[in-house]
Write a structure and sequence with these properties.
Elements (H helix, E strand, L loop, with lengths): L7 E6 L12 E6 L5 H8 L18 E6 L11 E5 L9 H18 L3 E9 L6 H11 L5 E6 L6 H18 L3 E5 L8 H11 L7 H7 L5 E2 L9
């Protein structure tokens, strides 16, 4: 069983001063309202109700922390956190949501030392709105990795999936020096195992290996290397 399947709710916050002070790795999940973020988290964790979606998209403004694994020195402390960020971009609340996103989430994404990476959730049929690109631009400045899940891939035929992944890789390469991208579907379970492995790698719960990349396949995952400016 994957360690992610033992994920459990830890805390919820709506102000930065309430963030946990344990100094543990945090991996943030972000995406537009209705892109399938909660479903993706629940599918990766193999749980039905770990992450909740608001009945009114765009209304939820809390940051939810899910504990993953056990700390080697203390069973009462998690090894890491998956962090569910509020959705953004819903038309009926776009102005208020964007203001909160820029003030609170922008600061968290750019300045949170414990944050080790970002999982960006985008509908495979409609990737990269202006807000998605703003988020990537903010985060790419940290030099930390971004992993994109192109959700609802089951809605596309084979050629549509290939085109969506290729276009996403191309745009990501223009926006971020270090990224991975894959197709994902909670319905037919496309890419679920790949996403599980990548999340564990980003959290430091397992080492990234060439075998992992090979198993993901050319259609599923594309990785780019850090540039010399990032220290390699």
């Amino acid at each position: 069983m994957s360690v992610l399947q033992q994920a459990r709710f830890f805390t919820t916050v709506d102000r930065l001063h309430q963030l946990p002070l344990l100094g543990l790795p945090e991996l943030a999940f972000a995406g537009r309202s209705n892109a399938g973020k909660s479903t993706a988290i629940n599918t990766i964790a193999n749980q039905k109700r770990l992450a909740f979606a608001s009945k009114t998209p765009g209304r939820t403004q809390h940051i939810n922390f899910f504990a993953v694994g056990r700390h080697p020195d203390d069973d009462e402390v998690p090894a890491a956190f998956m962090v569910d960020l509020p959705g953004y971009g819903y038309a009926q609340v776009a102005r208020d949501s964007r203001a909160h996103w820029e003030q609170t989430l922008g600061t968290y994404i750019r300045k949170r030392n414990e944050l080790v990476g970002l999982v960006l959730i985008m509908d495979a049929r409609r990737p990269f709105t202006d807000l998605d690109e703003t988020l990537v631009a903010w985060f790419s400045g940290t030099g930390k990795p971004i992993h994109v899940l192109l959700t609802k891939a089951d809605k596309l035929n084979r050629s549509g999936r290939t085109d969506a992944l290729r276009a996403t890789r191309r745009r990501l390469g223009e926006l971020s020096p270090f990224h991975t991208a894959q197709l994902f579907s909670a319905l037919d379970r496309t890419g679920v195992d790949d996403a599980d492995l990548r999340v564990q790698e980003m959290l430091g719960l397992r080492e990234a290996t060439d075998a992992t990349m090979d198993n993901a396949g050319a259609l599923q995952v594309e990785r780019t290397k850090k540039t010399p400016a990032q220290g390699e």
